[in-house]
């Protein structure tokens, strides 16, 4: 299968939370070898993303190069543990990013099925509308809203924050950061690394900061991360210690920037980094989650990181062992059931693990 890749003449795409990507011109050529796919620009990137960028949750939904639709329908469903307190009401509001399909769709459907006002935040408005219609049909809930959001674009994040202020005046009770990006094949390089980190880490961080004042005291934030981004992927002891001792978002930003710079300079292996852009991006997201939990603890906001597992979605070519309902189970558990005092932890299969 032929895949498109950018020539070596591409200038780097640079992300800043306030501005998104700066536009850059590029030259494109067709390669028959490695399935390299480098995102071109933030503004006007739509057609390129559709054909080449693999959008995902952690081990979740992707759009493959020539496979836009899912061959298997998503499932949803959530069992509330016996004795759990049902604290939510029809006035409770949940925002789920990357919710147009896959695990994100199942999380949003779980929220709607519990009678929670649910915002489907989706990059593609058309797919978002279809997702909302299906959730309404299958859950019976009419309180499902659609909002366009591309977390890789700082302007889109700002627009979403403005939208939520207007349409969710009472604030947000639950924020599930499920949107993300990954590449398939052996794509690896500075531009790919920049885009991956800019989305999965900087994009998630930007959204959390943009919505900070709108998240209610006592609310929930769930960041869908990945076992691929556990601290153990860093073999260099000194670098691992920098992640362990990171105590501010700025510390994590420094590490994220260092990874991209080291990849660009061709020295990432010597500096102790793994050959996984996705893994490093998710490690940064997980580390940020731990720090965010401490920042929001005075407001009693419960913040969690989790891995949904190996789920049968487009990303796994439907080879995953879990259904989307099973993949959505832990994120939903953390959003609805987890005791507030267990903030700042990393979870999988409803079990707490170390970062």
From TrEMBL:
Any one GO molecular function term: oxidoreductase activity
Domain of life: Eukaryota
Claim: NADP is one of the keywords in the record: yes
A Pfam family the protein falls into: adh_short
Keywords (A to Z) from UniProt: NADP, Oxidoreductase
UniProt KW Oxidoreductase keyword: yes
Protein name: Uncharacterized protein
């Amino acid at each position: 299968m032929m895949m498109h890749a950018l020539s070596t003449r591409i200038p780097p795409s640079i992300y800043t939370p306030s501005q998104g990507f700066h536009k850059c011109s590029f030259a494109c050529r067709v390669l028959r070898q490695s399935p390299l796919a480098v995102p071109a620009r933030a503004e006007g990137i739509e057609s390129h993303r559709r054909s080449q960028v693999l959008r995902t949750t952690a081990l979740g939904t992707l759009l493959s190069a020539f496979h836009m639709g899912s061959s298997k329908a998503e499932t949803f469903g959530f069992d509330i543990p016996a004795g759990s307190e049902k604290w939510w009401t029809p006035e409770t509001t949940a925002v789920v990013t990357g919710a147009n399909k896959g695990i994100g769709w199942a999380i949003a459907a779980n929220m709607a099925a519990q009678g929670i006002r649910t915002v489907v935040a989706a990059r593609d408005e058309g797919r978002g509308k279809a997702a909302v219609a299906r959730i309404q049909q299958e859950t019976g809930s009419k309180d499902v809203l659609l909002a366009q959001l591309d977390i890789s674009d700082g302007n889109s994040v700002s627009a979403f924050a403005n939208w939520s202020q207007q349409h969710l005046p009472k604030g947000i009770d639950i924020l599930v950061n499920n949107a993300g990006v990954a590449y398939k094949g052996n794509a690896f390089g500075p531009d790919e690394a920049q885009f991956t980190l800019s989305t999965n880490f900087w994009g998630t961080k930007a959204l959390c900061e943009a919505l900070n004042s709108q998240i209610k005291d006592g609310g929930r934030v769930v960041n869908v991360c990945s076992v691929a981004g556990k601290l153990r992927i860093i073999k260099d002891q000194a670098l691992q210690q920098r992640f362990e001792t990171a105590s501010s978002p700025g510390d994590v930003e420094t590490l994220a920037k260092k990874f991209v710079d080291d990849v660009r300079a061709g020295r990432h292996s010597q500096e102790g980094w793994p050959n996984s852009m996705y893994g490093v991006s998710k490690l940064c997201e997980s580390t940020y989650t731990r720090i965010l939990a401490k920042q929001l603890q005075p407001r009693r906001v419960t913040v969690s990181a989790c891995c949904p597992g190996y789920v049968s979605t487009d990303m796994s070519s439907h080879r995953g062992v879990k259904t989307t309902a099973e993949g959505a189970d832990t994120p939903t558990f953390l959003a609805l059931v987890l005791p507030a005092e267990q903030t700042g932890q990393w979870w999988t299969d409803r079990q707490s693990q170390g970062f």
